[in-house]
Write a structure and sequence with these properties.
Radius of gyration: 19 Å
Number of helices: 9
Helix content: 40-55%
């Protein structure tokens, strides 16, 4: 959004959302195939994939994967971390809709991972209890990388540590989904559910799928 049109108040932002929804409703009458299938989704959905992604506004999942209404079951949380509510959401989609694929989608320049790295580099850094709970979930994936980076006594390259930590955090979330739920573990081990990690590059728009 250009800076000159960016809302200055919450009320202005609310009006923009209302105007946007009015345009969306109007678009439902056009011939776009994506919009034409909307009535089918009122009573049921059949998503082709479950995406556990970050809340970052720069990573709109349906747009990134060029998918339409009803195609993706999307769970978004800062740092694409795994907590009971996220596990439950994945279980719901996998069991209710029979969806065969879960993608944990991290992204470059992730603010939540950056906050965790900053907290390790600067222990005096403090966050609100709720934000700290997210940082604490990311910390195990970052801690060993930080320890290795500081083992030689040299200064830590924070940018490099963030880049590596983003991928480590994705892999940790994949592992937690595979092994933190009996239902998901059974589906995964039997080949009925594929759980993979990926990283979205903000600069290029490309998604790179990670090896396990």
């Amino acid at each position: 959004m250009p800076n000159d049109t960016r809302p200055k108040t919450g009320q202005e932002a609310l009006e923009l959302l209302k105007e946007g929804n009015a345009r969306y409703v109007e678009s439902l009458t056009n011939l776009d195939p994506c919009m034409q299938k909307r009535p089918e989704l009122i009573s049921d959905q059949d998503p082709l994939a479950i995406i556990l992604g970050c809340s970052d506004a720069r990573v709109p999942v349906e747009i990134v994967f060029d998918q339409g209404l009803g195609d993706l079951f999307v769970i978004r949380v800062a740092g694409n971390v795994v907590a009971p509510s996220q596990i439950g959401s994945v279980e719901f989609a996998a069991e209710k809709f029979g969806t065969k694929l879960v993608v944990v989608l991290g992204h470059s320049h992730c603010g939540a991972v950056t906050a965790c790295v900053e907290a390790l580099i600067n222990p005096e850094q403090h966050y609100s209890p709720n934000l700290q709970s997210i940082v604490d979930r990311i910390r195990p994936s970052v801690y060993n990388l930080h320890e290795l980076a500081t083992a030689n006594g040299h200064d830590v390259d924070a940018d490099e540590l963030v880049d590596r930590s983003i991928r480590a955090n994705v892999r940790m979330s994949v592992s937690q989904l595979k092994h933190g739920s009996r239902a998901l573990e059974d589906l995964s081990s039997s080949g009925q559910l594929l759980i993979v990690g990926a990283e979205y590059d903000l600069e290029t728009g490309k998604v790179r799928f990670l090896d396990s």
